[in-house]
């Protein structure tokens, strides 16, 4: 059930909201939370009800193990708990990748596993690993199991983030005033949700046509087509994922729950470090707090810092997908951060516009490895982009219809306020009410004509 699907917008969401606030208004706060938990599990089981078994067992294990860790505060318990989570993640996400590479290297004949990747497994696994670590560090309170389950499964963040910390979410659920309908939060939530929906179905889904055509056969692209393909994906990915995050934040506000910021105009970043402070912020913070800092961060000299950065971002690449292109994407970003760290020591001032241009150019190049279905497809596209072996193609990408959304999207990225800024300054006045109504009407038109919708980050 996609956030942009009619069944979610016109059935699941209104029913969930109405029942939740009706129960709360009748002083049935515990039942309202229980209802929200049941609704979230229904939402998760919509694609495949068998996934409920996995997430249910995962929550039982991690909550129980968290209590053991809190009671005994033994490092071996933490290590065991984290290892079990990683083994489950490895089985579902990386086992076939490992078997394929083993068979290739050692001429093995092991059959691949018949494994279907459960939705959101990376997100709810990381969320619960952080909970175990915090349990060991004495940062976890005395939570009920039902509240813990609601923290993990709350449907706005369950499938693709933002990655939330228990200290950010669980106290909000336990605050009884948040169970009451808040017209201010509701109006702002509707505003942010519909802006995110517009980013997804108007811009990202339109650009997906170019991306799909371009990556279908990268060997046949001309130089211009290759650049259009790569730029279209960079813009599509941003609007797709940030649009999802905006919708999640808006949905949270409908229930009086504040989610952390996840995107902050990343393509306006002046350097690669700035980019990672703006792109998928909750993942960046997780990698920093639970991988980079425990490895030693920047406390042990330049070589150790460079090593820790490379390990962190290579693991970040692996987290996104089981493939060498993802690993290389992570390597490229780790290397860029190492180089940037050394460059800043030279204290060479460059204009902001140049920093933005260079950073976006580099990020756009690295996205090729992130999106390409194979190493060959990635290198073919890059060759075409730089005029090496580019061909005269019959692939139609650069028509007026397809190129216009790219420039419109680019202008929005570079020159207008982002959704966070618009949401922060939101007021329920006439101008914004008219804007909201217009956005809703346009969204309805695109919803009516939309086909084959998907969120890119569901695959991660």
The proportion of strand residues reads under 5%
Number of strands: 0
**Uncertain spans:** none
Number of domains: 2
Query: Oligomer, anyone?
Result: single chain
Secondary structure class reads: mainly alpha
* N-to-C CA distance: 17 Å
Question: Helices and strands, in N-to-C order?
Answer: HHHHHHHHHHHHHHHHHHHH
The radius of gyration computed from the alpha-carbon positions, rounded to a whole number of angstroms, is 23 Å
Overall shape: it is globular
Q: Main beta sheet, described?
A: none
The helix content is over 70%
What is the typical, i.e. mean, pLDDT? 89
Number of helices: 20
Task: Tell me about this structure.
Its main location: membrane. Pfam families: MBOAT. InterPro entries: Ac/AlaTfrase_AlgI/DltB, AlgI, MB_O-acyltransferase, MBOAT_fam. It is found in: Cell membrane. With 460 residues, the chain is mainly alpha-helical. The chain folds into two domains: 176 residues, no CATH class; 232 residues, no CATH class. Helix 1 runs antiparallel to helix 2, helix 3 runs antiparallel to helix 4 and helix 13 packs across helix 14. The model has no long low-confidence stretch (mean pLDDT 89).
What's the short version?
The protein has 460 residues and is mainly alpha-helical. It has 2 domains: 6-181, no CATH class; 202-433, no CATH class. Helix content is 71%, strand content 0%.
How is this fold's topology laid out?
Elements: H1 6-25, H2 29-45, H3 51-72, H4 75-93, H5 95-106, H6 121-136, H7 145-153, H8 155-158, H9 166-174, H10 183-216, H11 223-254, H12 272-276, H13 281-295, H14 302-320, H15 324-344, H16 352-371, H17 375-385, H18 400-415, H19 419-424, H20 430-449
Helix pairs in contact: 1-2, 2-7, 3-4, 3-6, 4-6, 7-9, 10-11, 10-18, 10-20, 11-16, 11-17, 11-18, 13-14, 14-15, 15-16, 16-17
